[in-house]
Amino acid sequence: MRAYQSRGRIRKRLLDVMIASPYHRVMLFPVPDLTTDDRRVLDQIDQMRETLRHAVRTSAVKWTEGLRKFLTADAVAASNSIEGFKVSTVDVEDLMEGETEVDVSEENREETLAYQRMMTYIQTLHDVEDFSYSKGLLNSLHWMLQGHRHSIRRPAGQWRKGPVYVTDPRDPSIAAYTAPDAPLVAGLMQELVDWLNESDGTHALVRAAMAHLHLVSIHPWADGNGRMSRSLQTLMIAREGVLAPEFSSIESWLGRPGNTWEYYRELNDRGSQYQPDQDVSGWIRFNLTAYHQQAQTVQGRLTRSGRVWTSLADFADSQSLDERTVTALHDVAMAGRVRRSRYQHAEDLSLQQAQRDLRDLTANGVLQPVGRTRARYYTAGPQFPQDAIHIARTPMPLTHPYRT
């Protein structure tokens, strides 16, 4: 009863403000002050991101291009998995390359390609000079994500016209969160857009985390709110300009099972209805942890990729293999398989050249084919260099920034 009365007071307060003036300021979560520990962690994140930026610029293009594609696919796979669409990162990579013979459901294929299209557009916006946030931009991004599901009842690219709930993952019959009433959405989104276009001196990573919380709490669309909120955070980090979006996103971190439950818990701690007048320091700490550990992960992946490449280049030289075949072997070591089309595109080969290289590697026992014709891919054969596989599969250490 008390929760219901509290919700009623907040709703009345919001409606009263909206009625009072067409130029109202509604209500968003206040940005919390950072603690000494928060500032320490944020400084470490900035240092790691600068180090990673330098490493990306000085590494071989083939390593970084492969890493860019992997990180994009990993973000898409992870963010979709949070919403129940389960596609492995390697399958997402294949779908992004235009492969049609990938063993996924039609629904998962559509969701993957839709998210990839939206992420591709976000990646192009990271350095646009004449840029501003707008309700139109956000609705357009939503259409890219949800346009294939557009219906009168659940329109894509438009604010919702009715109530929306987040169900409890343990019991779908229970509403874990009830979003603000539909008449409040336009005003809240205008408030958010105005805030996005302001510069208040807050660190870009903190602002991006707050934008995520603002949008997911408003829940302005009938569906796709979680992915849109995570994508907005990615866009804001990318606009900061330190790292390209694929190196900046924390979506893959959020998609790891243990982290996903922590994510749910942090959102659940905000309450069962929209209560912006509260301290969200816990949300900021959670996001700073995500930024820190994702930076560690990306740096570790880049270092590992380089070590694997060097090992495979030495192997290719010892076996008198063409240097270009290292690209195919690297995919196998890092992702577990390679497809002919992916290798062909990566090395800009003709169909015949790619087929011949893979056939020769198979004949020498370095690779072994799986499947037939268009669905075929290649995995490690008995003569594949085990040193490279060992490097690729050795777990990397990951520290928690608030526990050191």
Task: Kindly describe this structure.
The protein is mainly alpha-helical and 404 residues long. The strands form two sheets. A two-stranded antiparallel sheet has the order 1-2. The protein is built from 17 helices and four strands. 38% of the residues are buried. The chain folds into two domains: 85-278, Fido-like domain (Fic-like fold); 300-393, Winged helix-like DNA-binding domain superfamily/Winged helix DNA-binding domain (Arc Repressor Mutant, subunit A). It has helices spanning 2-20, 36-58, 61-82, 89-96, 106-124, 135-146, 182-197, 204-218, 225-240, 245-248, 251-254, 257-268, 281-318, 325-335, 340-347, 351-363, 386-393; strands at residues 165-168, 171-178, 367-370, 377-380. α13 (281-318) packs across α14. Helix content is 61%, strand content 5%. A hairpin with a 6-residue loop joins β3 (367-370) and β4 (377-380).
Question: What is this entry, summarized?
Answer:
By secondary structure, this protein is mostly helical. About 60% of the residues lie in helices and about 5% in strands.
The sequence of SSEs as H and E is: HHHHHHEEHHHHHHHHHHEEH
The side-by-side strand order for the widest beta sheet comes to: 1-2
Average pLDDT works out at: 91
Instruction: Let me know the number of strands.
Output: 4
Number of domains: 2
Question: Largest sheet, if any?
Answer: 2 strands, antiparallel
CATH class of the largest domain: Mainly Alpha
Structural classification = mainly alpha
- Classify the helix fraction into a percent range: 55-70%
Put simply, the count of helices is 17
Label the overall shape: globular
Which percent band covers the strand fraction? under 5%
**How far do the termini sit from each other?**
43 Å
> Rounded to an integer, what's the Rg over CA atoms?
23 Å
CATH level-4 homologous superfamily of the largest domain: Fido-like domain
At CATH's second level, what is the architecture of the largest domain?
Answer: Orthogonal Bundle
Task: Classify the fold: give the CATH topology of the largest domain.
Answer: Fic-like fold
